[in-house]
Write a structure and sequence with these properties.
By secondary structure, the protein is α/β, with parallel strands linked by helices. The chain has 2 domains: 92 residues, Translation factors (Elongation Factor Tu (Ef-tu), domain 3); 143 residues, Nucleotide-binding domain of ferredoxin-NADP reductase (FNR) module (Rossmann fold), CATH 3.40.50. The protein contains 6 helices and 12 strands. It has a 6-stranded antiparallel sheet. It has a 6-stranded parallel sheet with strand order 10-9-8-7-11-12, with helices on both faces. Strand 8, helix 3 and strand 9 form a beta-alpha-beta unit. The protein is globular. The relative contact order is 0.15.
Length: 249
């Protein structure tokens, strides 16, 4: 149910150049009940900006946002300049890009701050009583200097052997000094294809059967999401197995 919240900023951290992680507390007496993948609407003088919740849906007294500061961006600059302890007006939760309550294995494809709702989905899934499905994340960034959330995902992977992730660096030429299990050079789609080929060979099943054993969740910029969605469909993934959300600036 969509509600109005006057939330208090309690934490703000620049986790990578121009990428900020914010935590807001919900007013006492209110509860934020949402499904992982949904978003909040930031109200700036009746101008609304949409930001996906990055925290787990098991947390009801606060929520996290992951925001790229855009030159001239109304919402991102408002948040960057908001002092800790100050309040901001939000409306929410809203959105239909949500984690399905199924036992199927899941593949997450995210680029940039499109990882925010994906992070919420992964953390929420492992907060459930039953969490036996295999979860795999391919997270696309440009280079090592812009990496964020590695520690968060590494911690989840160490606690849950059925979660694996790979940070795909599209503009790096090598992985010198990086964890080669969790990093890769190239774009998200190339790593997805290698992953599916490997599982096809191991299972000795047709590739389209392997591909459609998964649910796919895709989030990022419009161009990236459209490209990844088209790539998946071209490879034989059925449309009903793909959920996606396009970020707009």
């Amino acid at each position: 149910m969509v509600q109005d919240y006057e939330a208090t900023l309690t934490k703000k951290t620049e986790v990578a150049p121009e990428i900020w992680y914010y935590q807001f507390d919900i007013p006492e007496g209110q509860s934020l009940d949402f499904v992982a993948g949904q978003y909040m609407l930031l109200n700036i003088n009746n101008n609304y900006r949409q930001y996906s919740i990055a925290s787990a849906d098991t947390i009801h007294n606060s929520f996290d946002l992951l925001v790229e500061t855009i030159p001239g961006g109304l919402g991102s600059n408002y948040l960057m300049n908001l002092p800790i302890g100050n309040k901001a007006q939000f409306k929410g939760p809203a959105g239909v890009f949500v984690l399905k309550n199924t036992p199927r294995d899941k593949i997450f494809l995210a680029t940039g701050t499109g990882v925010a709702p994906i992070k919420s989905m992964i953390e929420s899934y492992f907060g459930r009583e039953q969490h036996n499905a295999s979860l795999t994340l391919f997270f696309g960034l440009k280079n090592r200097d812009g990496v964020y959330l590695y520690d968060a995902f590494k911690d989840i992977a160490e606690r849950h052997p059925n979660f694996n992730f790979r940070i795909c660096l599209s503009r790096e030429e090598n992985l010198a000094g990086l964890d080669e299990v969790c990093y890769g050079v190239g774009r998200v789609n190339s790593h997805l294809e290698v992953f599916l080929d490997r599982h096809k060979d191991a299972a000795v099943k047709p590739k389209n059967e392997i591909m459609n054993a998964y649910e796919y969740y895709i989030c990022g910029s419009k161009t990236t999401v459209d490209s990844l969605k088209e790539f998946a469909l071209t490879m034989g993934v059925l449309p009903e197995n793909v959920a996606f959300e396009r970020f707009t600036l």
